[in-house]
């Protein structure tokens, strides 16, 4: 009897230990389109398909540690945060004929600002917004860049042609499909020495 009780005690301890160290299952939502996300999805994860990740974030926009995790787990899953939903809901009801509305995401380092912005970018991409996305502004002047051309007409202003070229590639990569769908055309206008063209003349 004593041996039986001891065996039962070991079994109970093993069950408690297994329960204690059991890895919790992350809550997920089946809504993969951020247009459909609402307050019921807050704190849940959703998965972005690899093609969309490549279209939006191939040239920047996701923190390096997060990118390493996505490579390790072979999926890109974002948490749906309340601040991102607030911006998305505001964009849905914005009157774009009026002056632009500006948003500021703030918080401590590691609180999810970059990934909230990634969620908002995914919404804008899915809703066919033209993305004017600058992944990381400080890198423009963070290093001793030899290609900086200082302006001769405006004191303190500079042009960074290589960075500008890289950003244009980033812009085209993110918006290429939509630009092709819009079927935009360009017009080459030749100017003389004393010629000026008022912007209204282009309409």
UniProtKB/TrEMBL annotation:
State if Transit peptide is listed as a keyword.
yes
Entry GO terms, CC: mitochondrial small ribosomal subunit
Task: Give the highest taxon in the source lineage.
Answer: Eukaryota
Q: Where in the cell is it found?
A: Mitochondrion
Broad class of where this protein is predominantly found: mitochondrion
Q: Which UniProt keywords apply?
A: Mitochondrion, Ribonucleoprotein, Ribosomal protein, Transit peptide
The GO molecular function terms of this record are: structural constituent of ribosome
Q: Pfam families, alphabetically?
A: DAP3 (PF10236)
One GO process term, biological-process aspect: apoptotic process
What InterPro entries does the database record attribute to this sequence?
P-loop_NTPase, Ribosomal_mS29, Ribosomal_mS29_met
PANTHER family to which the protein is assigned, alphabetical: MITOCHONDRIAL 28S RIBOSOMAL PROTEIN S29, SMALL RIBOSOMAL SUBUNIT PROTEIN MS29
Q: Which family does it belong to?
A: Belongs to the mitochondrion-specific ribosomal protein mS29 family.
The protein's name: Small ribosomal subunit protein mS29
